[in-house]
Amino acid sequence: MLTPRPQPWWKTGFAWVFRWFDSEAGRDAQAVNARWGWLNSLPYLAMHAMCLGIIWVGISPIAVIVAVAFFALRMFVVTAFYHRYFSHRSYKLNRFWQFVAGLLGTTCVQRGPLWWAAHHRHHHRYSDEPEDTHSPVQRGFWYSHVGWILDPKNNYTHVERVPDLAKFPELRFLDRFCVLIAVATGAGMYYLGKGLAAAYPELGTSAGQMLIWGFFVSTVFLHHATFTINSLSHVWGKRKYETTDDSRNNWMLAILTFGEGWHNNHHHYQASTRQGWRWYEVDLTFYILKLLSFVGIVKGMKRVPDRVRERTAKVVRAERIRAERAGQLRPEPVAAGDSVTP
Ligand SMILES: [Zn+2]
Ligand SMILES: [Zn+2]
């Protein structure tokens, strides 16, 4: 294997800055000069700092309504598209709607669809094992919540984990230039505010207000709501099924994340489009996907088989107890020559 040639500091330093806009920039440079990795976190920290802008831009009902609506739209996008479609392929979209799903996904500022799906598939493969990128059991709350995203070693997309997605050039384009789309989304909010202020001055909003509330505040809330599934859903809640990881079902997180809180169900059977399997397990994303299936956008949603759904931890325990009792009544025959102590 060839060892990468050390490069001058300015080249590797600039690579970190370029990669804010092009996720493939400096892929090799990074390997030889990881001390510039902190530059990578700057936009993320800046996004949080921008929320303080509310002190200067003030507040109006319309700004809060837009922030909440944009949060809700993108919460749906993250769970329906990035998670249930791109990561798990639990239903089908045609190529046009697949592109729209990826494009909307990039407005969530959680990097591109390939990056997201590649890391998520890895999580399912090694859930709560030492290799798991964001296990709170292995690495603690903060690393599983946000630290892993800022960790330079998780920067690049592992294309080899998502060959089924990487074969579409339009998805690779979105993945590579996801940051530019995120910036354009912020600019869109700014101009929406500008337009509203000019057309409806009685709303009392402004370009700055819409940028801060509609984009930054909404996006930061969206991020932390999404991240609870990595950090809290493996430690807080009920384990209805005996999975090999520590995943939990938590109704509060399910409401906050539009159905993702039924995480133990999901780890028990990942292929299912629906994650709230009982009528009382509210799964807003599934209801919306069902509506989209009525108009023909979403097709082939996969169901959880009844036998899988019924095999709860309680059932498994009961089976085990029954087997043990049966074993006591009819002990295994002792092989000839074995010494048996009374
Ligand atoms: Zn998943
Ligand atoms: Zn998980």
Task: Describe what you observe in this structure.
The chain has 342 residues and is mostly helical. The protein has one domain (11-310). Helix content is 59%, strand content 0%. The chain is built from 18 helices and no strands. The longest helix has 27 residues, at 61-87. The model is unreliable at 334-342 (pLDDT under 50). One zinc ion binds at residues 123, 127, 234, 247, 263, 267. Residues 123, 127, 234, 247, 263, 267 line the site of one zinc ion.
Radius of gyration: 24 Å
How many alpha or pi helices? 18
- Overall 3D form: globular
What is the terminal separation in angstroms?
Answer: 62 Å
SSE pattern, N- to C-terminal: HHHHHHHHHHHHHHHHHH
Q: What is the β-strand count?
A: 0
Unreliable parts: 334-342
Biggest β-sheet description = none
* Whole-number count of domains: 1
On the 0-100 scale, what is the average pLDDT? Answer: 87
Portion of residues in beta strands equals under 5%
Ligands, ions, cofactors: zinc ion
Percent range of helical residues: 55-70%
Which structural class is indicated by helix and strand composition? mainly alpha
